[in-house]
Amino acid sequence: MGPGIEPGMTDPAMTDPAPSATTVNTGASGADTSFPVPGPHAQPRRLGVYVCHCGGNIADFVDVEKVAAEIRKDPDVVVAKTAMFTCSDASQQEIIRDVAENQLDGIVVASCSPKLHTFTFREVARRAGLSPYQYTQVNIREQCSWAHTDDCTGATLKALRLVKAGVGRTRLTVPLEPIVVETVPKAVVIGGGIAGLRAALALADIGLAVFLVEKETELGGWVGKFKELYPKGRSGRALIQELVEKVRSHPGITVFLGAEVTGKSGSFGNYEVAIRVDQTTGETVTVQAGAIIVATGFEAYPMKPGELGYGLEGVLTLPEFKELLEGQETNTPLVYRGRRVETIAYLYCVGSRQDPSAVEDAHEYCSRYCCTAAAHTAVQVARRPGGVHQFHLHRDVRTYGKYELLYGEALETKSVYLKVPDDEPPVVQPDPERGGLLVTARDLLADGETVEIPVDLVVLVTGMVPRANEELTRALKLPVSKSGFYNEIHPKLRPVETVVDGVYICGTCQQPMSSSEAVASALAAVTQAAAILKRGFAELDPLVAIVDPEACTWCGECAEVCPYGAPQQAEQDGKTVAVIDKTTCKGCGGCVPVCPRRAIDLEGYTDAQIKAMIDGLAEELGWEDSVPEEVMV
């Protein structure tokens, strides 16, 4: 795609379908068989171009008035204006008035990243009576003003070229409408931890049928293993038991234990999900669902023998230590293998924030919950009789938000915190003199002095790592982030949605979270899924691939490169051709360049539009030397 313009973003479902929206016309294969051939308009277009100051984010380095004045010379541009903030309500209303008064049939907004305001201006176009897809957003903030703060002339020239490219694309737009598909009022929830249980209950409570699939032989996940949870001290086991009882007694929830999702077919709104219910025989059942919520959780960082002393007697991971702690009465001194524990050292950031130059397949991210979990555990230990000396060897303490109160409580109960260098982890070795362990580290809070701490136990505060779900990832075609967790479309604007329509992620399969954050994430996924399933239909982005049946001879190249399985083989007018399942296609355009017959195009980004964008970028402007060096407003 041309620089400054980022396609492939899906419109959120509107409250009501657009009056001109139509249901997908499908053949026997379930794929669209029509081929609207886009081309240049016979009549001149009436376009409106709006160049944003973005306060000073753009105007400090781009001469926006010059850009508007130059683009106004285009014969198809009827309106060319600047605005301090184009996304403001006042500017949106002005665009709507301009469309009505000037009979505009296309809009170009030159402002910030399309990831921020694509939906905003598509809605503006819709409210103005246009198709949302007769709008183009050009990014002149990140790609011009922010990228070229040392070259105002160059930033202005680049901005104008990008706007010309946007005008070229918009000139060839057609009034596309969302693809409307019917949805089945059922959902599959994968994972029976706290996030999956809450998601299943929330869906069932609003009248949707739910299939809850858990790989283990019992529900509960990690939270079901714990007694006291922070910050309110509620029992995790009691909480999970209560949720499990509600799930099992709910008539709208079907539970599959010891089961795995192995496949997904069909299209958005009406998926057929294959569930292997017997791992020995391979017996599989298939259920219909309009949405899938993935809540498969995490794994604790797997320690390697010898890593930070792991394998030595008295060296435990935090989950192992919590199991030891909760297996003993709270009114008795802490005992390990028959010996009373008097001193404990907690080593932080084990399996998190690793240096990729020193560790293969390093986990560079922060696991977020570990510091709080260690502080909470230290408080639990301090409540026991007898008194235990506790040392926390950390790189940073990240008990964020309200959890900082736990850090304060740990300090009040005489936990000692020592800051160690990032590149010099503590050394753990046996202590032959006293029979315990010896922890050696440099304390940066004591001017880098080396300290030796004789201890009875070493607790390795291990982080979260992604659960191994290769089969599920392949079956659902889920995107995976650099860290190995499942990836959302946008962390703020669309935090639980994936690029696969109708498939949502929540909880710690997405990123490290606390249990309360995982539940909030699960309910967000429920909200997104239920909004579509309860309505009975959904609207999909029409920026999908289209096939010219006259040119296509079905070679299968498009089907081989498509990661979503959208191109399908079909018989049409006595010949074998490719057809596109519009409900599956994501508009990535990967099939377009591989077609040897040039029979495939992409709605909204046709070959003609891309060429027009290139022409706009390459056009000789004739005023390159006329822009002053200082164009700051």
Structure report:
The structure is a single chain. Helix 9 runs parallel beside helix 10. The chain folds into three domains: 176 residues, 3-Layer(aba) Sandwich (Rossmann fold), CATH 3.40.50; 182 residues, FAD/NAD(P)-binding domain (3-Layer(bba) Sandwich), CATH 3.50.50.60; 166 residues, FAD/NAD(P)-binding domain. Helices cover 25% and strands 24% of the residues. With 633 residues, it is an alpha/beta fold. The N terminus and C terminus are likely disordered. Strands 9-8-7-13-26 form a five-stranded parallel β-sheet, covered by helices on one side. The protein has a five-stranded parallel β-sheet with strand order 15-24-18-19-20. A four-stranded parallel β-sheet has the order 3-2-4-5, sandwiched between helices.
Task: List the keywords.
633 residues; disordered C terminus; 14 helices; FAD/NAD(P)-binding domain; disordered N terminus; globular; Rossmann fold; alpha/beta; 25% helix
Name of the level-1 CATH class of the largest domain: Alpha Beta
Low-confidence stretches: 1-42, 629-633
Number of discrete helical segments: 14
At CATH's second level, what is the architecture of the largest domain? 3-Layer(bba) Sandwich
Output mean pLDDT. 90
Which range best describes the helical content: under 10%, 10-25%, 25-40%, 40-55%, 55-70% or over 70%? 25-40%
SS elements, strand count:
31
The CATH superfamily title of the largest domain? FAD/NAD(P)-binding domain
Distance between the termini: 31 Å
Structural class: alpha/beta
| Strand fraction | 15-25%
Largest beta-sheet characterization = 5 strands, parallel
Shape: globular
